[in-house]
């Protein structure tokens, strides 16, 4: 997985990997380095597993919203 250069994409990727978007006093360069270290410490399978879990959780939330909207 490549590390994006755009700060917003870095923050989004960190959230998708269940990490804080920003640590106290952290700038864009430090945030990018943290993401790079995280990605290098995880295997591709681990990253895919986390992303799949997040997609499933999002689908459950959407299903719940649809059920509530029908009531």
TrEMBL record:
<dbReference type="GO" id="GO:0046540">
    <property type="term" value="C:U4/U6 x U5 tri-snRNP complex"/>
</dbReference>
<dbReference type="GO" id="GO:0017070">
    <property type="term" value="F:U6 snRNA binding"/>
</dbReference>
<protein>
    <recommendedName>
        <fullName>Pre-mRNA processing factor 4 (PRP4)-like domain-containing protein</fullName>
    </recommendedName>
</protein>
<feature type="domain" description="Pre-mRNA processing factor 4 (PRP4)-like">
    <location>
        <begin position="5"/>
        <end position="57"/>
    </location>
</feature>
<dbReference type="GO" id="GO:0000398">
    <property type="term" value="P:mRNA splicing, via spliceosome"/>
</dbReference>
<dbReference type="GO" id="GO:0030621">
    <property type="term" value="F:U4 snRNA binding"/>
</dbReference>
<dbReference type="InterPro" id="IPR014906">
    <property type="entry name" value="PRP4-like"/>
</dbReference>
<dbReference type="InterPro" id="IPR036285">
    <property type="entry name" value="PRP4-like_sf"/>
</dbReference>
<dbReference type="Pfam" id="PF08799">
    <property type="entry name" value="PRP4"/>
</dbReference>
């Amino acid at each position: 997985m490549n590390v994006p250069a755009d700060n917003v994409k870095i923050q989004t990727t960190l959230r998708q990997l269940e990490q804080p978007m920003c640590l106290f006093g952290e700038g864009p360069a430090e945030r990018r380095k943290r993401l790079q270290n995280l990605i290098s410490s995880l295997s591709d399978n681990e990253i895919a597993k986390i992303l799949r879990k997040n997609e499933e959780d999002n689908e459950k939330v959407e299903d719940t919203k649809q059920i509530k909207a029908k009531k």
